[in-house]
Specification:
The chain is mainly α. It contains seven helices and two strands; from the N terminus they run H-E-E-H-H-H-H-H-H. Helix 2 packs antiparallel against helix 3. The protein is globular, with a radius of gyration of 17 Å.
């Protein structure tokens, strides 16, 4: 499996899974990563995102989950054992696996994510109140992110 810009865009649009086939396109089922020159790039990005997300374990209000979702995506091809370690973490691990492999976000996760985005938007909006261009970009970006999260499937009960 090769990650191309078209494939990544399709993953983002369909929430992590190919809608028509209902097959994970982020994760290889045989557990082997692709060889070649891009493997180290994916590994580097994955470990950087993992480290940034780990800061959130000790720093209040620092988001861990979004960085670990990115890390799981990057490490799926380059280091499946580290990806599986992320999935095994209590609390966020199963939620990350659900999103990466099936494009699903629980209702509780959606509420928490949207609430966090709105709080960040309020704080950032107040700081950017003098620049209408920056405020417009902020509001558009947050609106797109909220729409993305709100339209993801919820796990079957």
């Amino acid at each position: 499996m090769r990650f191309t810009p078209t494939l990544v865009l399709r993953c983002l649009l369909y929430g992590g899974a190919a809608e028509s086939a209902r097959v994970s396109i982020f994760v290889r089922t045989d557990g082997r990563g692709e060889g070649g020159g891009m493997r180290w790039v994916w590994a580097l990005c994955g470990f950087v995102l993992l480290a940034i997300g780990a800061v959130g374990l000790v720093l209040p209000l620092w988001p861990t989950t979004i960085f670990w979702i990115g890390a799981a995506f990057c490490l799926a091809e380059s280091h499946p054992k580290v990806r599986d370690w992320i999935y095994a973490q209590p609390g966020a691990g199963p939620l990350i696996q659900s999103f990466v492999e099936r494009g699903e976000i629980s209702r509780k996760g959606k509420v928490a994510a949207i609430a966090g985005m709105l709080i960040a938007c309020l704080i950032s909006g107040w700081l950017l109140r003098d620049s209408w261009i920056a405020l417009t970009v902020l509001l558009l970006t947050i609106a797109i992110a909220i729409a993305f999260v709100a339209t993801r499937r919820e796990p079957a009960a």
